[in-house]
Amino acid sequence: MRTYWYSPRLATFVAIMGFAATAPFAGCGGDAVTIKPNGTGGDGGGGGGDLGVCGNGKLESAEACDDGNLVGGDGCEPDCSYTCNNASPATGDAKCDDMDPCNGQETCLDDHTCSKGTAADDGKDCGNGQICVAGVCSPDQCGDLFKSESEECDDGNVTNGDGCNDCKFSCLSSDPLRDCTNLDPCLGTVCDDATHTCGNPLGEGAYCGQGQVCKGGTCTPTVCGDGVLEFGEVCDDGNLVDGDGCDANCTLSCVDPAADCPIAPTCQIAACSAANVCTTNPVAVDPACVAPSSCQNGACQAPTAVCGNGFLEIGEACDFGAGNGTNTGCEDNCTLSCMTDVDCNDMNTCDGTETCTDTLQNGQIGRRCAAGMNEPNCSACAGGLCNNGTCTASACGDGCLDTMAGEQCEPPGSATCDAMCKTIIVAICGNGTREPSEQCDDGNTTNLDGCSATCTFEQLQRANWLAMQYGTDTYCTANRLGSAIATAGQSTISDAITASVKDGSITIIFQMLDLDDLSGTSDPMLQLGSTTGIPIIPAGTVYDGAADLDWWYTIDTLTLDAARVPTGKLSASIAGKTLNAGPGSLFLTINLGGVPAPLNMNNVKIEASIGNATMPLVSMGAPPGHLASENLDPALQSFETMGQPNANGAAKLCGNVSAASLAQVPVPAVLLSGSTACSQGYTAANSLLDVIVGGCTALGIIPVIIARQPDTHDPNLTNLGAGPPYTLTRNTTTKQVNGCRDMNNVAVPLFECLQDAAYSAYFKFATDRVIGK
After folding, report:
1. Cα separation of 157 and 539, whole Å?
2. What's the pTM value of the predicted model, to 2 decimals?
3. 568: number of CA atoms within 13 Å, CB side?
4. pLDDT digit string (tens) for 379-389?
5. Separation between Cα atoms, residue 440 and residue 555, nearest integer Å
6. How far apart are alpha carbons 236 and 276 in whole angstroms?
7. Is the pLDDT of residue 190 over 70?
8. Rg of the chain's alpha carbons, rounded to an integer?
9. Cα(277)–Cα(35) distance, rounded to whole angstroms?
10. In angstroms, how far is CA 542 from the centroid of its own chain?
11. Are 565 and 528 in contact (CB under 8 A)?
């Protein structure tokens, strides 16, 4: 065993890297090395014991295991202790337990790895007002299809009257407020406690109140003249004309001739026809017809007169011979068809004013009724509107705009007129006025400015918590990039990422494109756009990127197309308040050791639980919140978060980072100079890729970055040579990557190789809702 002494400067470095002052480091020849402060004694002093080099694949002193890597969760941890060990309860199943009641009981296997448990049934109460959904303890939401203890039901929709409204039964016979008795009798007034719907409705046309009948499930006043025989009506011939068999009050025109009909002419008697129209029948004797005249064919005529012979004889008013007939000027009984205009009035105002006019036939003058001129269609008449000379009841769809009946347009069923003849307000997005079909209207048609180009709410989610992962799990099964970060460097990177998220220099924004369900409960098809930007921080405003609900961000136009839509998009879906997106390509910018790293990622997939829906904040002129000029629907709610800022509830993102993007990131300054410099001699001319391929040890003994080759490639590109996995080579002097070989160790073009070669990576994150500007 060798012992080295270190200065306060080295102590500072060791503290930065997360080591204790007496932490063991690898020395030459496999000897354990203890670093002690100057003047604290020699080999016999209180340093750490003899330890091997963890990760070299050799089981050495004080190591429980060594599987040749520094990946956690694979049975042997990065400190060469077992992931779990059934030798004792504390290190066995108990050590595997992640304390999540929704993903089952984890157990320790004989190979010292933790086995996942069986996920609990969806809807199981997991405490704190939450339930299990897809193995994750999630907020209990009305509409998530899972009935919790606080809900009577949950059918996953907001439809009223279907048995479940707002997670309470639509009706309940034991609840006076929900027993159906106060409902429209046409819908039903008896609660069926099996389906919790109202039953026993009255049939179509049934009487439901004074002068009312059921129409389409609604108790509606009867309408005389609509052609439908309804309760309280004796008849309904579809018009409002008196005397045609059915009068304007929907009663029969003629039931009692003596009372309902005018006085009949001499030698005739009033009568009702089979169609309930007033008519006359001839009589043989009439006191008004005095001898020697007598009643003949309904007329009082002289004994010698022969009606119909064409000769005007005593007792006849006229005789047109074969020309006699109804309204010819001379009736069949040789009487005039009319005497005055009153005789011609048909009581129908829509066909004009009838007149009694002279007519000449066979040298004789008769009198007949001449029709009037029809009133224009849609003219008002008693109780309705004129339609082709007839007074009919006004109805939606008759072609007449009847404002007195509440109509706003005709005909119904058009782009601007609904089925009830009400005007459909055509929304004009960008006019600064929010119409009923719009969620907002900010007076323009620009995307990512608080209100979209189609006047829909822009659902943006920014990562307000981000953690690079150094191991794997069942969702992200590969993580070559994370495994390259040794224990000594992990806290430095994690702290840098946390600080950059908080100050806004790391801004990863996801936009929900084509999102139909703002509550985030269910949406089978949408897109997840990826963009970035910088926070807007007015003077005197306190900004915290870790808690930035509805904060304003200026979106980076380099990540957008001409329509200000993110160029990087993943296909996505939402089911049961869980979003799944990918696989696809997108860009992420993170901070690796103090250096912004724009990462081009392919084969990306994302899984995230979705939080509660809330009303967006209202701005007072500065962030956070939506401005009054955006005219946001005051009743609108959208989901507030994705994932939770902790290891168990976080959203997951894994994919492949292209070697080309790592080649564009300069070496972090902390690895170039001072006590933290890599012993490999990197310079400012090197890239982060050079360091990952070559590895980095501080002071020649402290592993910071473990040398790693790319483990995958971009499936969207054509393979080079024999294809991946590719091996990158370096210039031994400059330490720069200068070559690439395919799986058969044959050289391939470096530029193309760097585009295709990639490192698997894994991140966890949580988001909250923000506003683009």
Report:
1. 45
2. 0.53
3. 25
4. 988 878 999 99
5. 20
6. 13
7. yes
8. 46
9. 122
10. 33
11. no
